[in-house]
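Private note to self, pasted from the team thread so I don't lose it. Backbone tokens:
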């Protein structure tokens, strides 16, 4: 499967509790479409935290931009808003940036001309989608995944191969 490099989704919104739950479903749909099913829960939870922080600290109804970008190897989620106050990672608490940090491989903030961007990344390599082939019986009752194999003589079972030589000690 070939994955187009640098898939992107961007949406501008006015943040509200109702809109945050809608965006959670939209983010999940995009991740599923990109075959990143294993990342749906953690990415949606972390994105929801970023959007909730905008609602809580910048204000309900404030404009912001949510962006998803997947390179085939890394998924980056960012939320930009128009408030210049930079977020802080608080000790204790189980939410906010602490949760984003726990759900991501890296995260950060950046000032912009209009405010700031808060982002996180997750390693999300292109999934391997090898389909299983049906089992085809071989003569003698043996099966081989992928199809029959021509037999050229009796099957000889061998034990494990043991190589002699110096043994390296792991430190």
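Design output:
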């Amino acid at each position: 499967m070939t994955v187009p490099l640098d898939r992107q989704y961007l949406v501008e919104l006015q943040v509200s509790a109702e809109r945050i739950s809608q965006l959670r479903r939209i983010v999940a749909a995009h991740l599923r479409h990109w075959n990143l099913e294993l990342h749906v829960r953690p990415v949606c939870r972390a994105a929801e935290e970023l959007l909730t922080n905008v609602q809580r600290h910048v204000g309900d109804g404030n404009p912001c931009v949510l962006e998803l970008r997947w390179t085939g190897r890394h998924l980056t989620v960012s939320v930009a808003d128009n408030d210049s106050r930079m977020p802080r990672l608080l000790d204790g608490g189980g939410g906010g940036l602490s949760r984003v940090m726990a759900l991501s491989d890296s995260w950060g903030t950046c000032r912009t001309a209009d405010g700031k961007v808060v982002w996180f990344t997750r390693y999300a390599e292109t999934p391997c989608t090898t389909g299983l082939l049906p089992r085809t019986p071989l003569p003698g009752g043996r099966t081989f995944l992928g199809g029959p194999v021509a037999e050229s003589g009796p099957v000889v079972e061998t034990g494990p191969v043991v190589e002699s030589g110096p043994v390296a000690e792991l430190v």
